[in-house]
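Tutorial handout. Part one gives the primary structure; part two gives the three-dimensional structure as tokens.
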Amino acid sequence: MLYSDLTPAAKRATFRARLRSGDLLQLPGAFNPLSARLIERKGFDGVYVSGAVVAADLGLPDVGLTTLSEVAGRAGQVARMTDLPTLVDADTGFGEAMNVARTVQTMEDAGVAGLHVEDQVNPKRCGHLDGKQVVDEPTALQRIRAAVTARRDENLLIMARTDIRAGAGLEAAIERARALVDAGADAVFPEAMRDLDEFAAMASALDVPVLANMTEFGKSELFTATRLHDAGVAMVIYPVSLLRLAMGAAEGGLDALRAEGSLDSAVGRMQTRADLYDLLDYPAYSTFDAGVYDFSLEDHHHRAD
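Part two.
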């Protein structure tokens, strides 16, 4: 009922332990807190909060328009509704070193288990768009050092994302990833790898977990979890997938309503009321109500004798 019974610290410790297990952790992107509940129910390892999804949910493109408050607010809403660890996209840290430090502490207070900070120039662009620019290496390293210095819970995962592959090639990406790890990054997110061999090369070059971004319509093929694990990848995110599925279904339903005058033909594709109530745990709220309000005042009269 209400929020997760697990503390953020417990979720972070569990996330760290799972990353040491050698398993591939799958983190679908939640587009709202309810979808995070569904991700947990379906047995996934964690929840991802995508900057692109937060922006799209506000009707904005993913070009650095969202603020720290907006992203941390949504990340906190998602994180508190699930026992799973939540990994959040912190873009460029919403500024430079001091901003990055504030971002880390704000996200930590929001209850997330980890966040990634990237090396793009402000304002950033979607990682699978062309025309990205990255900052020089000293600036990228400064961001990660600021992030690591700012955290108060040592189990908060600080992940470094690098977008340098698109412009400078794989070797440059590996070189930068190594430097980011030396600066204190706990994990690396190499954006827009071309194929499994590139993931394997990155994973073998580093002694920290590597994340794969399996976003549809992007630069990478949609590799299976098994193939990614065999390539040495430790985590995989599906950042915008649930939003795309939901919006695609919503569009189909609206088309049906427009064409047919009712949604009768679409009811079979809807989540039922019973399934929604079950996901929301209505019975627990009813039990709580009964325990709190089902009492009598008859035995509690006080007489002023």
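Part three, for discussion. The domain at 8-246 is CATH 3.20.20.60 (TIM Barrel). The chain has a mean pLDDT of 94.
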